[in-house]
Write a structure and sequence with these properties.
Helix content is 48%, strand content 0%. It is an all-alpha fold. The mean pLDDT is 88.
Length: 67
């Protein structure tokens, strides 16, 4: 990773740009559309909500992405 901390307010596209391995983590977490056009506009938090994740699951995802 580039050293930039991943936050819930970053777009999915920004997350993947900062760490290409994040695409695999997001896919395993149920984000099937990491390469769709919405990824450029949707924040990680918005994506989590639209995929039925709660705050605890989002926090765990952020922890995993920032490892």
């Amino acid at each position: 990773m580039s050293g930039k901390k991943i936050t819930k307010d970053m777009t999915i596209g920004e997350v993947i740009s900062s760490n290409p391995k994040a695409a695999d983590i997001l896919t395993k977490a149920g984000f099937g559309c990491v390469t769709c056009p919405m990824a450029a506009m949707e924040t990680l938090e918005q994506g989590a909500v639209s995929h039925g994740m709660d705050k605890k699951e989002l926090d765990a995802l952020l922890k995993e992405l920032n490892k």
